[in-house]
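Deliverable D4.2, example record:
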Amino acid sequence: MNDQTQRLKDLLSVPTYTWEEDELIQHVIGNAENLCDKITTDDLGSIYITKGECKPNTYYPCFVAHLDSVHQKVDMVVKEESLPNAQGEFKTAFKAYEKISGEPTGIGGDDKAGVFICLELLRELDNCKIFLPVAEETGCHGSRKANPEFFKDVGYAIQFDSTENNTMSKTLMGVPLFEGDGTFIKEVTEVILEHGITDWLHHPYTDTMMLKNLFDFSCLNFAAGYYKYHTKNEYVIIEDTLNTLSLAKKIVKILGNKKYKYLNKKEQHNFLFS
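Output generated by the structure prediction step:
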């Protein structure tokens, strides 16, 4: 197992649950603090990371993944298995089992696989921001309290919280993440399709929906390589997670440090700010 795959396994082995993200928060801080220029948490526990400096009139790409999962915290062991991807091909995957009973338990790839992608991007890019909110699963509580100051110099945001290996969000609860025929999506459509992201879907909520309504930049939300999410049989296919990591790096190379403004005029849902 190479170092990168070991880092994925180590992160997936950390238990986390909504409002009980403390172990994962410490894991992230311990792995990120020597890779960035600034790392802070807010009163809820959401993590804000900055690496590098932006020159005048340039902006950071911001990567997003949530720290909680729907699975109650248990002592678990993560094992390698051969499991099917969205195309029915069997690939090397990580799946979790309770240590005592040996029964399957949710590995929490939703959204620890996304957190892993964010941390790998932190390792590999010179300039970026990362936002890792708590408590997404019960209504985006962390992102609805996102610090506006942190996002003033963000040019666009990419979240990794969609399923399997071929999906992305076109809308979240009816909220468009980007202008359908705008420059932002036109510039990256080819590379998105090259990486097999062919199902552009109308999804339920995740944090980029909140960011889209709070701020004025375009957003994306990509597959993170997790399957059977919110079940005890959830698993993460390593190749699929790394495919999205590769895609994100290529998108940053294409988009650079520009601001891709998109003001969404859709009426906001009542629960967002309740």
